[in-house]
Amino acid sequence: MKFHPHLQPDLEQYAPSIYNGLQTEISTSKERSFPLITFIDTPGLVDGSFHYPFPVEDAILSVAKHTDLIYIFFDPIGQALCDRTMKVIERLNQDHAEKLRYFLSKADTVPNERDRQKVVVQITQNLSSRVRNAHAFELPSLYIPGCSEKLCSIDNILDATCHEMQQTINQSVQNNLNKLEADCKRVSNRIDELLSADKIARRHNRRAFCRGFVTFLASLIAPLLLVAFLIHRTGLIKHELLTATIPEHMLAHFGDTCDAIVAPEPAAATALPAGSIDETLGVESADHTHATTGTGASSGLLTLPQLMFGLLGCFLALQMLSRMLWQLSPQLAKKEEKHLKATQQFVMTEVLETKARLYKQYLDEVMSEVQ
Questions:
Q1: Transmembrane residues, as ranges (predicted)?
Q2: pTM (2 decimals)?
């Protein structure tokens, strides 16, 4: 699996029992584009009580998705016509009919042409109900020349099969190079989308920060007003430090405003001097009426609890609004943005240049073969 990591996602579901049957052989031959070919040999299927340590039919179908050609060999002696083999062929025909190629292997072991025709007819009859497009079904003979002691006169399709492999390799190389270019453009477009989305997120975050920060500052006005009002009521506003830094007319205007909003509490009668009490008791009715009218005119708009709870409510409402407006969208870090731009530049320059060089090399090889 180390040599073929692309097969691991489909075969790991049969692990670990399938690993005991896996074996890899590497050939150093460079004839006929051999380094570009990977042969995957599956085990022969038998019926009866024989038990495989893993679902061999499902494993064959999993590997078939990664192949360009699927060769099925029928032995003229055993013929490999067991029910399990027929079921696998039927399932392969459902999704990979265009990849399937059927061969009568070891055709040089058949004594004469008449016997070979009988074998071909028998195999064709067994496959006719399981293979799509059975009217165009072919079962050519294939064998390795020189392995038989007798000279075989049966046509061998080995050279035509090798030529088909070469054409498939050329087509796969061309498709992979075209796919490489498409993937590079897809990666570049995706990076552009990420950078564009990040730019929009940054713009949104700047606006959200400004709105949220302004609302947060506005929420601080309420507690500042409350503190200023309490300073006025406690008499700290007449402190020497304040009177030295703030003009007196502004302090007086601020005090009048506070008294207009919340009237000062009336002085207790016990706080007045004795002479004042006698004078108050002897006041005429007109003066009493005038004093009553003056007291009513000096009453404030709100009581002290109403002012405190009102300012507290404004503070909490503006704080909640600030949190709602100060919601930031996720954005890329500077390091991530730099990495994306470097990746995009690498893909669109070096990778595409490599693709163009390989494509030119591929065309040169094809032209040399044609000539």
A1: 208-231, 307-326
A2: 0.61
Residue pair 105/142 in contact (Cβ under 8 Å)? The answer is yes
Give dist(CA 262, CA 307) in Å, integer: 8
Closest residue by Cα to residue 209 from 322, 127, 55: 322
SS3 track for 72-141? EEECCCCCCCCHHHHHHHHHHHHHCHHHEEEEEECHHHCCCHHHHHHHHHHHHHHHCCCCCCHHHCCCCE
Q: Which of 114, 191, 188, 116 is nearest to 156 (CA)?
A: 116
**pLDDT tens-digit readout, 211-260:** 999 999 999 998 888 888 887 777 665 555 555 666 766 767 777 777 77
Residue with tokens 């405003």: 257
Residue 296 CB contacts under 8 Å (≥ 6 apart), including other chains: none
Report the C-alpha gap between 117 and 154 in whole angstroms.
11
How far is the C-alpha of 28 from the C-alpha of 360, rounded, in Å?
25
Query: Counting Cβ atoms within 10 Å, is residue 314 exposed (0-12), middle (13-18) or buried (19+)?
Result: middle
**Per-residue pLDDT tens over the stretch 279-298:** 433 334 334 444 444 444 44
Q: What is the number of alpha carbons within 13 Å of residue 145 lying toward its C-beta?
A: 7
